[in-house]
Q: What sequence folds into this?
């Protein structure tokens, strides 16, 4: 389990993808994110697992399966 903070971004790549971009510039592709997390531009803290067993056509970063999250103000 990892904990990552950053900004949620919607990427117009292939069929579209949701990403979490950290302050350091590292990008994670959010795997099946909850509906409440699909808000472009919000800052969040996410707890989840890296999925090495899943591939996507977006290929924008490591795949992060969200287990829980908190929206920061």
A:
């Amino acid at each position: 389990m990892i904990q990552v903070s950053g900004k949620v971004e919607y990427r117009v790549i292939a069929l579209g993808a949701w990403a979490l971009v950290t302050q350091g510039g590292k990008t994670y592709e959010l795997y099946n994110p909850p509906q409440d997390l699909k808000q472009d531009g919000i800052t969040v803290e996410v707890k989840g697992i890296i999925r090495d067993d899943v591939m996507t056509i977006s290929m924008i970063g490591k795949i992060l399966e969200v287990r829980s999250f908190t929206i920061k103000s």
The two ends are 24 Å apart (CA to CA). The CA atoms of residues 5 and 45 lie 4 Å apart. The beta strands are 2-11, 17-21, 27-31, 43-50, 62-72.
